[in-house]
Design goal:
Elements: H1 10-19, E1 25-31, H2 37-47, H3 55-60, H4 70-82, E2 93-95, E3 100-105, H5 112-118, E4 125-131, H6 138-150, E5 155-160, H7 169-185, E6 192-195, H8 219-224, E7 238-247, E8 250-256, E9 261-263, E10 267-271, E11 275-284, E12 287-289, E13 291-293, E14 297-302, E15 313-316, E16 322-333, E17 339-340, E18 345-349, E19 352-366, E20 372-377, E21 379-380, E22 384-398, E23 409-414, E24 417-426
Parallel strand pairs: 1-3, 1-4, 4-5, 5-6
Antiparallel strand pairs: 2-3, 7-8, 7-15, 8-14, 9-13, 10-11, 10-15, 11-12, 11-14, 16-22, 16-24, 17-21, 18-19, 18-23, 19-20, 19-22, 23-24
Helix pairs in contact: 2-4
The chain binds guanosine-5'-diphosphate.
């Protein structure tokens, strides 16, 4: 495969990503501050040959111990991003022999939690970095809670700074078992737990003699063994309607295909009404098309003189999502002012939206300690995760979590402020 150059302006990355659909594996690197996330990202870029010429030398010049400060790489990117010279770490990508990885966001960015929880940044897999000396700390727990809430179960644990303990097995085993216990609490099983040193490049691209006792995969091997992301185009069709324009008496329905494909002459289900419509034409940039696939923005016309409006979703007739006025969900509450029973909320899921209420909070969980704070709660505080039942004024099309399911995530807005992100866990069919 011809690999794209490592660093491109974000617009080009976006069009490349679209052209390649979901060939990328989008990874997020999470973990407590100072445990080595930025260093790991910098080092991964270096080991895979993804750094632009001269960048490494630039960083090494400032190093005291002759070893480059890998984390500085990302600072360089941030500075350049601010000067709009190039891209930031959230747009960095690297390739192994078998596929391309895109690092989609890095904690430490102010908006990280919000981007992750609200779906602005969507990952296929995560690397959880834990400092072998410090062990599991508050953000380690919070990030695990966030991954669990998002249903992101494709995970590699990297126990970092192994050089600080001379590569020894004892400290690794101790931290490794506390991470595994934490993950068990969140009902997660990592693909593997790899002892690494981001600083020295141990167990990233190759095995390190200093960790001779370890016979598992290197981090690159672990990444390459992660399952392929669900191919969006082969999922059932989900086409949320963005707008309907009337041009010369023709009604053009426009939107972005979130998953699946659409073909001229095909019959589709229009939700939440459940009516069947037939695609008459598909248009893109004034050009007639016979078909279109996931991530394309298109216009289409239908044969029936039905009323279609923003917020409706055209779907695969055989595998429609559920149209629900009430469903169970996990939410991560972000807004500082919390939630109290009776608060009016607005739910947004792709282009669909409806006023809603949290009908019931089954469990309120502290995302840092994982403790159930309260069953059947009547309020939520910032950063808490909760299992809730939502009631909507108007039913919308939703699907339960799983990969490549665009209608599983939503955000909640309170008093005009984006206040929580959530995923649908169980949606009963709407009784007709
Ligand atoms: P982040 O906050 O998680 O992104 O952590 P950084 O990547 O900024 O690293 C925090 C500090 O740990 C920096 O001083 C790094 O040089 C250091 N560090 C990161 N990885 C290693 C490692 O493998 N070994 C050692 N000895 N130090 C490391």
């Amino acid at each position: 495969m011809l690999l794209p150059p490592a660093f491109l302006p974000s617009s080009e990355i976006t069009s490349l990503a679209r052209a390649m659909d979901t060939e990328w594996l989008r990874i997020v690197v999470v973990g407590h501050v100072d445990h080595g996330k930025s260093s790991l990202i910098g080092r991964l870029l270096h080991e895979s040959g993804a750094l632009p010429d001269g960048r490494l030398e630039e960083i090494a010049r400032g190093a005291q111990d002759g070893l480059p400060e890998w984390a500085l790489l990302l600072d360089h990117f941030s500075e350049e991003r601010e000067q709009e010279r190039t891209i930031d770490s959230t747009q960095a990508f690297f390739a192994t022999a078998s596929r391309v990885y895109r690092i989609i966001d890095a904690p430490g960015h102010r908006e990280f939690l919000k981007n992750m929880v609200t779906g602005a940044a969507q990952a296929d897999a995560a690397i959880l970095v834990v400092d072998v000396e410090a062990g599991v700390l508050e953000q380690t727990r919070r990030h695990v809670a966030m991954l669990a809430m998002l249903g992101l179960r494709c995970l590699i644990v990297a126990i970092n700074k192994m050089d600080r303990v001379g590569g020894k097995r004892g400290p690794f085993d101790a931290v490794s078992s506390s991470v595994l216990a934490l993950l068990r609490q969140a009902d997660m099983t990592p693909q593997c737990v790899v002892p690494i040193s981001a600083k020295h490049g141990w167990e990233l691209a190759g095995h390190a003699p200093e960790i001779g006792w370890y016979d598992g995969p290197t981090l690159f091997e672990a990444l390459d063994s992660l399952p392929k992301p669900a191919h969006l185009s082969s999922q059932p069709l989900r086409f949320p309607v963005q707008d309907v324009y009337e041009i010369n008496g023709r009604k053009i329905i426009v939107g972005r295909i979130e998953s699946g494909r659409i073909a001229r002459g095909e019959s589709l289900m229009c939700l939440p009404t459940g009516q069947t419509v037939r695609v008459a034409t598909i248009e893109k940039f004034m050009e007639d098309r016979t078909s279109a696939k996931a991530l394309e923005s298109i216009g289409l016309t239908i044969e029936e003189p039905l009323h279609v409006e923003r917020g409706m979703v055209l779907c695969d007739l055989k595998q429609p999502p559920r149209a629900a006025g009430q469903f169970e969900a996990n939410v991560f509450w972000l807004a500082r002012n919390g939630w109290a029973r009776g608060d009016s909320l607005l739910l947004r899921c792709t282009t669909q939206q409806s006023p809603c209420q949290i009908e019931r909070v089954r469990r309120r969980v502290n995302s840092s300690t994982f403790e159930v704070v309260e069953d059947d709660a009547s309020h939520l505080d910032a950063t808490e995760v909760a299992e809730v039942v939502l009631s909507l004024d108007q039913p919308i099309a939703v699907e339960e979590f799983g990969r490549g399911k665009p209608l599983r995530r939503f955000v909640l807005i309170k008093n005009g402020e984006l206040s929580a992100g959530g995923t649908v866990t169980s949606a009963p069919r709407l009784a007709k």
